[in-house]
Design a protein that fits this description.
mainly alpha, about 70% helix
Length: about 650
């Protein structure tokens, strides 16, 4: 704006004035020196004026810079060396050049650099003492207070600071030395561990490759193993289905034979079935006779026989599956198909690096890893057949029995080690699952042989293997399947025909024989079901046996009989098979009320009427039979119901 322009114009005029004064001094205008007549204006004079202005400006800037540097140096020296009390006296207080100074400089030596001019301008004031007042030579106020004691105190303070610094450095040196020693020890220790670490690294690299190859092999073989198990299960199911249908057909045929009119011809297929049925019964009688079996009732034995052609066909199918199973791992190296060698690999890992073995949860993995080998060996195992190999006699059981147990037989296994439960876990995963499949699809509760074999296996694994217990999910599923299969058999299989009294009086007739056969067949189912006492739920099993079999079938059949001795004999059989825990105790079993009424009221009356007018032997027989009924009532906890039973025979 206008103020700035005025300020700049003033600055320029001042600059021109000072330059003119400098030129005047330099050219000796004021002293009458040579250089012209004072009538400037020529072009040469203007050039000289410009050059002079530039030299003057350079000298001014040099002088100002030198003065600033000297002042800064003086202040620094004053602060750092205050205890010495010495400052460079050659510099003195900072002064500014004046016109007189410049004149002195010019007259003293003409043109020179800024420093020389400055020094030349100041040196006369410093060297000529007569021109400087005495007060000007005194020390600055900052240095006037320095004394020997203050200097000593400062030195002692600095000495203490230096001592502390030395002590700190010595402590740092000591720590550094100790760290150096520890570093050397660590280097030596790491060098010693290098070999172990290398061996460990190589071991885990090898183990990693081995496990990956093993899992790849298992992935390829498990699918084939599943197909083989399915084929073998289908063979067993086909056999079970054949037996079940044949038994039902025999019952239907015999019921038809006893209800059709006399003289009615049977078709050819029916006649062939009758011939086969009677031939099987005849062979069973001959077998019992050779074994001197006494007191057998027709219908109590199990009809599990098969023709030779059927046996050969099923055996051929089984052998074909077993042969293919034997070839499953024939293209695999021994390290990947031998269960014992595979187990040794993991034992080496556990013995060498137990912590990593536990961190990798190998104990939980080996069960699943070993399971396919157990399934392969147990492929043809049928728990329903007699003469099957026991679990403890299998090769896989022997190979894994000492797994992770150590080499010293005197040392007991560690109960906290998960590997101790390897075999129980395999039994749970493989054996229990196989039993469940057989119960669902193959087991016939009407068969005494199958039930006895299955019951023996189930009781053994529950008692011998801690992982198989009622709280385990797999065990619960197995027991539930057993109960469901029993219940289905109780609902479907029993059949006892009830013929008119006139037919039942003929003891040797075919209908009566068929009646007794079916009674003992149902009684056999009761015996098979009661054997599961202690394995299945007691309350559910009682309801199934007492309500589903005794009251629904057996008691009605006994009441339909007209001969008291047959009734008493069958009552004794029924009471004799009931577990003591079902009938003992103060609490009465309501499901037995019908049987109790029959034995305490109806049968004694029938025996009494049968003894009337009979011989002494018959009366004695009736009396002893009534006494037996009293004992049966006491046996089932109904002694109070025996009152008055023998009064009729007094």
């Amino acid at each position: 704006d206008e103020a700035d322009l005025i300020y700049m114009a003033g600055k320029k005029q001042e600059k021109v004035r000072r330059a003119e004064e400098f030129m005047a001094l330099e050219n000796g205008l004021g002293a009458g020196g040579v250089g012209g007549d004072g009538a400037g204006g020529s072009e040469e004079d203007e050039d000289c004026d410009d050059a002079a202005i530039r030299r003057w400006e350079e000298q001014q800037m040099t002088s100002a810079a030198s003065a600033r540097l000297l002042g800064t140096a003086a202040r620094v020296l004053e602060q750092q060396n205050s205890m010495e009390g010495l400052l460079p006296t050659a510099y003195g207080p900072r002064r500014h050049c004046t016109s007189a100074g410049r004149k002195a400089g010019v007259s003293g030596g003409g043109y020179g650099n800024g420093a020389e001019s400055y020094g030349q301008a100041q040196s006369p004031a410093l060297t000529q003492s007569q021109s400087v007042p005495p007060s000007a030579m005194q020390l600055p106020p900052l240095l006037s207070d320095i004394s020997a004691s203050s200097v000593l105190s400062t030195l002692l303070g600095k000495q203490g600071g230096l001592a502390e610094l030395v002590q700190s450095h010595e402590g740092q040196l000591s720590r550094t030395t100790e760290e150096y020693r520890l570093s050397e020890d660590a280097i030596q220790s790491l060098e010693q561990q290098l070999g172990e670490t290398t061996d460990k690294y190589n071991f885990f690299q090898e183990s990693d490759g081995y496990v990956r190859d093993l899992l790849t092999c298992m992935d390829e073989k498990v699918n084939t193993l599943d197909l083989l198990e399915e084929r073998f299960a289908n063979i067993c199911q086909e056999q079970a289905k054949f037996m079940l249908e044949r038994r039902k057909q025999d019952v239907a045929d015999e019921a038809q034979e006893n209800t059709q009119q006399a003289g009615t011809m049977l078709n050819t297929a029916h006649q062939q079935r009758v011939a086969e049925r009677e031939a099987r019964r005849k062979r069973r009688r001959q077998s019992r006779h050779s074994r001197t079996v006494q007191g057998h009732n027709e219908g109590y034995s199990s009809d599990d026989e098969m023709t030779e052609s059927d046996k050969l066909r099923l055996a051929t199918q089984r052998d074909h599956v077993v042969t293919e199973a034997g070839k499953l791992f024939e293209d695999v190296a021994d390290d990947f198909r031998d269960l014992k060698k595979i187990g040794q690999r993991f034992e080496m890992w556990k013995l060498a690096y137990r912590s990593t073995y536990e961190e990798a949860y190998i104990s939980l993995c080996v069960t699943k890893l070993f399971a396919p080998f157990v399934r392969l060996e147990m492929l043809s195992w049928n728990p329903l057949e007699t003469g099957q190999v026991h679990i403890e006699d299998t090769a896989w059981f022997k190979d894994l029995l000492q797994f992770s147990a150590g080499t010293d037989p005197a040392v007991l296994p560690d109960a906290s080690d998960d590997d101790t439960f390897l075999i129980p876990h395999l039994v749970e995963k493989v054996i229990v699952a196989k039993l469940r499949d057989f119960v669902q699809h193959v087991w016939d509760p009407m068969s005494k042989t199958q039930t006895a074999n299955l019951l023996g296996v189930v009781k053994k694994i529950i008692s011998d293997y801690p992982s198989v217990h009622p709280g385990n999910r797999a065990t619960v599923d197995l027991l539930q399947n057993i109960y469901d299969r029993l219940k289905m058999s109780v609902d479907v299989d029993p059949y006892i025909p009830l013929y008119p009294k006139g037919v039942m009086d003929s003891t040797n007739s075919k209908p009566v024989q068929f009646f007794h056969r079916q009674f003992w067949s149902t009684y056999k189912l009761l015996v098979n079901a009661v054997q599961w006492q202690g394995v299945l739920s007691a309350s559910r099993l009682q309801q199934l046996c007492l309500d589903g079999l005794v009251n629904r079938y057996l008691l009605r059949a006994i009441q339909h009989l007209s001969h008291p001795y047959e009734c008493a004999d069958k009552c004794a059989k029924v009471v004799g098979v009931l577990p003591e825990s079902w009938v003992s105790g103060k609490k009465k079993q309501p499901s037995l009320d019908g049987l109790v009424m029959l034995m305490s009221s109806k049968l004694p009356t029938m025996l009494y009427h049968a003894s009337l007018g009979a011989s002494d032997v018959e009366r004695k027989k009736a009396r002893s039979t009534c006494q037996m009924l009293e004992q049966l009532l006491c046996q089932i906890g109904r002694a109070k119901d025996t009152a008055g039973m023998m009064a009729q025979f007094m």
